[in-house]
Design a protein that fits this description.
The chain is mainly α. 58% of the residues lie in helices and 0% in strands. Helix 4 packs antiparallel against helix 5.
Amino acid sequence: MLFPFPTMPEQIGPPSRFTVRMTRPVIAVLLLQSICCIMRFGLLLDILGGFVMLICVGFGWYAWWQEMNITYICYWGMMCLIRGIFDVVKLIDHEVHSRHPFFSSHMPTAVIAQQAIYYATPLTMLLGALLAYLIYVRRDDNTEAYNSGRSDWSYGAAEEGSWATRPSANCSFQQFGGTGRRLGTS
């Protein structure tokens, strides 16, 4: 592995309360990213960059569709961060080599729209990475309720005296009972 990233968390049970509250901001960022992606194809004619951004935005929409699944949100956030960094580099390169001044009133409307897309794309991508990071950090909000038994989940951590830890009265099973056998002998 090139970078020592931690493993992506798995969704076990419903999402945390914070994750559910972040649904609307995630949808807003995904809508902005979708608009930027469409404009990137149409206005900038950036086919490769638009396609990679389309994959990234697709991960975000899939995470939302899967009820804010933390695994897909983390993948979306990682792709947003990487794509956002590349888009910042592309913005710097564009501004260094541009013949037009920054948002001048003497420029044609098409050039102003292109500059707006160059600035909006990395902004929305890095905002998506920030949202994904905030959701990742607060993904265990339900842990306290989950471990204290106040949760409505039908599975979970066994507490002392709960149905999961009580031995059954008619249980006759013993671990490692009987004699040992070797392979090849009868």
